[in-house]
């Protein structure tokens, strides 16, 4: 057998063994730390002091060695679309199947999962930290105000449960979100792409203040958006392409009331659009919801307790109507409309996407991969979680 092939197969085997030993390693480490706390009790027995000190030092050494072993693996794998080819060859099929059945039962789950991916990657990279529940020792990103309306967690749990049945302790929750968001876009009639894999899950959520400051606001202006995206190594073109995904999901009245009530000039907002939106948002203090989907780029409106937008998806011949709405001053949120109207290269991008659906689809897919490649900070404790809402042990 060729030495290179043999080395590669040995490496694959080692990684597979390590993944399946993760629960054991964490359990052993926890036991070691528990014994370490108990070791000084030996000083109160008939055991010689020297032996007690030696035993305590031994447990310290063992615990540190195990910790170093875990830490050394963090951020160690390069992303690759074929990462699970041998360890979980069915991963793509499982994710796609669960997503298809979930979206068929509840269509809103497609935009919900896509939004989870954005909110995860913007805070400490794509590490599934947004899925972690709060503990007595750590807050949850779920409870921070910008994330309070996030849903779709049950879909990710269902996918993870199916994968744990087929490939225990192998596929990370971060990879599940990345794959599920790709399939969500495809199910809604958008583009598809190859997803690089091998992300790891963080053991801790980001602190609430970092989470709040790290997410774009519906009220941000162009300069604020550019600065925020640049922190993820995403440029203005990436930002403008990703904005097309914001035509899916739900928008609270409180997030667009400033736009429909605060803009007092026709140059800022189309008067008919503003008047129609006021019917579903009675004032700045209202909390009604407005629902819209990836296919709702050319809006028709219904009044009452909400506004439902219906329309056609982007096409290679007609371009993306979402961007045409920006040109027509019909952007729902301030952070949407700020992408157009200032002149220069930024306006050129919007005009290109409004006319060329292929360019939009190509750039959107490329930028989703780019955003999905944002890693957690170096040195952050990571793992492959067995359950997406809790760290292992």
UniProtKB/TrEMBL annotation:
Reaction equation(s) it catalyzes: 2 a phenolic donor + H2O2 = 2 a phenolic radical donor + 2 H2O
Residues the record lists as binding Ca(2+) 2: 247
E.C. designation(s): 1.11.1.7
Site keyed Transition state stabilizer: positions: 115
GO biological process, one term: response to oxidative stress
Region forming the signal peptide: none
Cellular component GO terms held in the UniProt record: extracellular region; plant-type cell wall
Active site: 119
Family membership: Belongs to the peroxidase family. Classical plant (class III) peroxidase subfamily.
Function comment: Removal of H(2)O(2), oxidation of toxic reductants, biosynthesis and degradation of lignin, suberization, auxin catabolism, response to environmental stresses such as wounding, pathogen attack and oxidative stress. These functions might be dependent on each isozyme/isoform in each plant tissue.
Protein name: Peroxidase
